[in-house]
Amino acid sequence: MKLACRCALVALLFAQGGHAFRRKKVEKTSLRRQEPKALLEELEQVLGAEHREAAEQRLHEFEDDLRITFKALPKNGRGAVAAPSARYALHRLFNQRHGWQIKGLETAAGAWDADSPVTAMGDRVPPKMRELFEDRLGSYGMTLHELAILAATMDKMFETDVAERLRIVYKASALKTEAHINYNQAKNVLWTYVAAFITGPQVESLTEGEVHKALDHFETRFPRHAEARDLLAAIADEVGGRRSNSYDFATLQTILSKFGQRLGALEDTECKVMKNRLTSLEHREGSGLVRLGDFYGNDKFDFHFTESPVYLRGAGLLDESNPNDPKVIIPNYLAGPSNCVQPSGYYSICCFDECEQLMDKVEEGLEAPMGTPEKIMDLVSGLPSSSLPANRTLSPHLKTLLDEVAGHHGGMVPIHGRLFAQWMHEAYPRECSYPHLEVKVQSRFDHSTEMDHVEAAEKSKYWQIAKQLEGSGENQTTSRWIMKEELVDRQGFEAHVKSSTRDDLTIFGALGFVGMAVVRHIAPALRPPAAVDSQTRMCISRPSSVQVFVLKLDETVSDDIAIVGTLDFFTPIVDEPEVFGGIAAANALSDVYAMGARPIFALNIVGFPSNRLPPSVLARILKGGQEKCAEAGVAILGGHTVEDLEPKYGLAVIGPSEPSGALKSIEMHLCPPTCELA
Is domain 501-668 given the CATH code 3.40.190.10 in the classification? Predict the structure, then answer.
């Protein structure tokens, strides 16, 4: 009868909580995680069915290309990434696909955890489109599918940019966009577009005179003009049919879009030659560094490096750890603005980043935002590059540095941040760029006059310095290692670290959710000292839905007392914090009542997303739990709170019972190793 009354009381507590929720207005910041509408449907409402169809055509392709990086990024409770991680993933996507550096997606010093990827859309897209993606990122994050939708939308946006520029060329060529043109006209339009926009200024109009000037200067300003012409002709034959004599505007737009996608591979052939020549000039083999004098003074190649020191410094391409012996950092130089062309207002085409390919393998091996130093060392030692073999032995120095990074992060190494990028540069000095700290690195979109030739006197000065140092045999390099972290998504990483341990909070919680077969395996590891074994006896309740233990004290301690305990917590089922706290507390108390015991004290257990909900919400949840426990005469003596991806609340509850009053149970003895489990 007493047990029935207590169960009725628990039911009443739940009913009161539900009634309170129905009467009160739900807060604007919902406690429960709300599932958003399908993003494609919302995109169709904003831009129309045509745009949705265009995005759908690319979705599977983009999902496949994003999958590895996405899996390794920190995610929230709905398996979605926040804006900084989305930005990073999209940067990786377009760089690996086409060698594109998207304006607004670049990761640079001081901007690891910066703008939303929607920034890359600029002001030339409908405001409602920007708002749609910003709201999705800010409120929910993006799943792999949703991130692929954003990528497809951006790709469509780049094609629209091609169309706008093509209209400028049509107008300058006195052609109408609705007309069909013959082969020779199409060839002239295509080549005019390439000449005007690959190396020319980003303009909104062209005159006939400017077109002729662009064509005249293109061959001198773009050394690979012959290869570019061949590539353009091949794509034209592929899209329009070999030597077709009728081309419409849409066909030329498709040809030029494909040209932009494939130009990166053409540029990269030149980059590989450049890298080989630079590595032959290294001040010490394998260092990835070239003395500035050697950079300027070597005449054995068919081209020369002439960028000024001011430009090299501003673009983050110099190692000046020894101010008297400045050196060019090879991977930084290859990725620098002077080795990029800008055929679009949205992106530059630069050398393919070989380090991105290495990172792809690291992410694939870890499938997580972080890894142990041992796991990472094992992975990286097996990864070959264009200048280093697979299965090499990494130096003790690299192990020491990686341990130092892990020590900075509680024993794990986050792979999406400055310190790991710095470590990868140490491991692959010819392939991975050095991540400068607190330096305003010049953008690949900033084509300033400082990129012009070095002055003859300055060139001679550095050449003399290099010769003197070479003669002295001085090849030492001062360490550039700086123990300063900048993470791509700091909040996401910290939440991932804290939530990864949330299942290890208490032994009772573990026992509460496993079956008896599992308990039999884990019981030996949970045995208390032998001195306690003789005085305790553990019983696990038969009903699997009640996560409760009953501890009957040995007769030498007390013959008429058993200790009943439980732990229970869950995510919100209502939006009112106080009501949620009360329901969770009543639920935990009910488990002890159900075993015929009287709860006397409890401990709070809380998971809370402090990056999404204000502290006042947590205070209200705890208040609700406190009030329900007070009604039952139960004291809350403390508890534990961890950062989590979504709110969780409950109690660990302890109470005494008469052994004869406890419900029938399965008895399990915690005994010395010589005994067998009952």
Answer: no
